[in-house]
Amino acid sequence: MSGPIRHIVMWRLRGETAEERSAARIKVKTLFEGLKGRIDGLIHIEVGMDVSAVDYACDVVLFSEFTDQAALAAYANHPEHLRVREALGDLRIGRFQVDYPIKETGA
Question: Could you list the residue ranges forming a coiled coil in this record (predicted)?
Answer without folding.
Answer: none
